Each structure stands twice: as structure tokens, then as C-alpha cells.
Amino acid sequence: MDLLRRTTMIFLLGALAATSACGNRNKGASNTTHRELERRDDVGNPIDGLYADENASSESIWNLFGPDDSDLTLSVNKYLWAASIEVLNFLPIQTVDPFSGVISTGYGTPPGGGRSYRATVYIRDAALDARSLNVALQTRGGRAVSEGTARAVEDAILTRARQIRISDSKF
Fold first, then answer.
1. Contact 52/66 with Cβ under 8 angstroms?
2. Cα R_g (the chain), whole angstroms
3. Which carries the bigger pLDDT value, residue 104 or residue 73?
4. Hey, which residues does 120 pair with through a beta bridge?
5. How many angstroms separate the CA atoms of 130 and 159, rounded?
């Protein structure tokens, strides 16, 4: 009987120690400093609106299942997206992220060309505008292409995007 009592006591003490280790013991100044560090960007400027409730005393896993308070919306112009893929169809696509607007390609040779290029396309806005599009081209040697060549590719994408939009509005 004494052995059973000792075993039970050791088990209960172990369970108590394990559950007490799960709590947040740093609710004082160090926690405040940590929140202040999270609320600053790379330069050190404060970022507003990072937390939905700044005065929340505790956070738990159940907060994940609550309502979504974020109002962050990323939007990409569908015509620029489609035109970019169509104009650069000679390049193999490596990665695409339609939420942030990035298309990254591998090396490929344009029809009738002798050099190999790769491209990264960044669509920043939902507007069908030249300011919404940024194309970076690179040769196989690692050098960036001339500004005129990159501008010509951007113009070709913009022209094709406008053509797609016009044909889309006819329906």
C-alpha cells in the first residue's frame, strides 16, 4: 500500500510540474519590451494596427478560431497577370504567387534570340497602369539587362494586358 501511495504522489507532482511549466511567467516588463520590438519595422518606425486588441491581457490558441479582424487586402490586376504569363511564355515558370503578385521564371531563350534570360515580374496594384508593373530581367551570366530591354518587355506586357481587357469587355 505504501508503494502505491508513493507512486501516486510522484505522478501527481510530475503532472503538477508539467502543467505549471505551460504558463506565461513573463507578463512583466520583458513582455512589454517584446511587444514593443514586434511593433517596429526594420528601420525602427512604429507600426500601427499590428494587434487587433492592444489591451488584451492574454492570448490563447482559441483566438485563432475567432472572427478575422484583419483588413489587409492584396490585389493583383488579372489582365497584367495573364499578359505577363502570355508574353513571357518562352520562359519556364518556377514560382508564382498570385496573392503578392510575383512571377519568377527560369532561364529561357526568346524566339529568334541567342541569349538566355530569366525574369521576375512584380505586379503591385490592381490598376491596369504602368506603375503597377515591374519587370526585372537577368542574363545567364548574372547581369541585369539594359533598362531599354526591360522597358520594352514591360510595354509588351502592358499592351497585351490592354488587348485582353478590351476583348474581355466585348462579352
1. no
2. 27
3. 104
4. 104, 136
5. 10
Q: Among 84, 104, 69, which Cα is nearest to 154's?
A: 84
Domains of the chain: 2-65 (no CATH), 78-169 (3.30.530)
The three cell numbers locating residue 101: 503578385
For 61, the grid coordinates are 490558441
pLDDT in tens, 10-66: 766 666 566 655 555 444 444 444 444 444 555 555 555 444 444 444 566 666 666
Spatial distance between the Cα atoms of 135 and 71, rounded to a whole number of angstroms: 28
**Per-residue pLDDT for 1 more than 70?**
no
DSSP for 129-170, please give it. Answer: SGGGEEEEEEETTSPBPPHHHHHHHHHHHHHHHHHHHHHHHT
Is it the case that residue 72 has pLDDT exceeding 70?
A: no
Q: Pairing between strand 93-97 and 133-139? A: unpaired
- Grid coordinates in use for 94? 518556377
165 confidence band (pLDDT: 50, 70, 90): very high
* Spatial separation of the C-alpha atoms in residues 160 and 16, rounded to whole Å: 67
Distance CA(121)–CA(103), nearest Å, equals: 5
